[in-house]
Q: What sequence folds into this?
């Protein structure tokens, strides 16, 4: 009976590709990886050069980039506001407890569980009222 030449070597019951087939597969995988890396690099350059003043500030790994925009005019809202049902408005995200004299930034350890007495526009506004930042 004549044997037909193939690119596979038979080992017992298992059939595995020959060295030439493995090398070809590895070369293709490396080529795809290089192509994907090049496409990603081009995409990053395009995003970085977009006009309009809209972009994002990079954040540590588990957090998405913080969006930023170029403001046409300065913020003229009051430095602090009263919370509504224990929740600060989006324009004033810093929570403050007047009795302890501490304010909490968004993303802080105790931010979510804090029921604010006042909501400040930013850290500077809270510090101007004599409050200090939470330790974490």
A:
């Amino acid at each position: 009976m004549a044997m037909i030449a193939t690119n596979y070597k038979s080992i017992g019951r298992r059939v595995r590709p020959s060295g030439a087939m493995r090398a070809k597969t590895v070369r293709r995988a490396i080529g795809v990886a290089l192509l994907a890396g090049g496409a990603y690099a081009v995409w990053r350059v395009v995003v970085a050069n977009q006009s309009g003043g809209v972009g994002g500030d990079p954040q540590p790994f588990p957090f998405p980039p913080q969006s930023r925009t170029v403001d046409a005019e300065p913020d003229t809202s009051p430095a602090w506001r009263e919370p509504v049902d224990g929740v600060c408005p989006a324009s004033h995200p810093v929570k403050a407890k007047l009795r302890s004299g501490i304010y909490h930034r968004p993303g802080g350890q105790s931010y979510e569980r804090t029921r604010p007495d006042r909501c400040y526009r930013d850290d500077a506004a809270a510090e101007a009222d004599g409050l200090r930042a939470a330790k974490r």
The longest helix spans residues 19-48. The mean pLDDT is 82. The longest strand covers residues 8-11.
